[in-house]
Write a structure and sequence with these properties.
Blueprint (H helix, E strand, L loop, with lengths): L1 E3 L5 H15 L5 H14 L4 E7 L2 E9 L2 E7 L8 H10 L4 E7 L3 H9 L3 E8 L4 E9 L1
Helix pairs in contact: 1-2
């Protein structure tokens, strides 16, 4: 079930954020994610967040600021079950276009977004990590 974020969800979604970032972005030091944990925890509630729950347990979430997707995160044990697609479709419902950034080395995410009609529109260097990232866009 998808529902809107509630303040008491923050610790659960931050655990997913941290563990999935460390796992998926193994080309970036674990310390980078740990050092940014509190910063993200403080700014995340400024985004429009939807959470996906199974038996009232949060297993994934998406955050968007206007037409920019900050990220989609699904707990490892619940991936490849359509949760990410459901969260993405929830954000698409009320928008005509979306943009996001994804690391070039994160091929699973790139393929996921391509499968969901996003296209790569530019390539940049993330100044915080010195990693190449793509900007991807979707238009209705």
């Amino acid at each position: 079930m998808i529902r809107e974020f509630e303040d008491n969800d923050i610790d659960n979604i931050m655990q997913i954020w941290k563990s999935e970032n460390i796992k998926v972005h193994n080309f970036i030091s674990k310390e980078y994610w740990e050092n940014n944990y509190e910063y993200v925890k403080n700014i995340l509630p400024n985004a429009k967040i939807y959470v996906f729950t199974i038996k009232e347990k949060i297993v994934g979430f998406v955050g968007a600021n206007n037409n920019y997707i900050e990220g989609i995160f699904v707990d490892t044990n619940n991936q490849s079950n359509g949760i990410g697609t459901s969260l993405l479709n929830k954000v698409k419902e009320s928008r005509n276009n979306l943009t996001l950034s994804v690391y070039k080395k994160n091929t699973n995410a790139i393929n996921f977004y391509k499968k969901n009609d996003f296209i790569i529109t530019s390539e940049n260097i993330d100044k915080n990590t010195n990693e190449i990232e793509y900007t991807m866009t979707w238009n209705r």
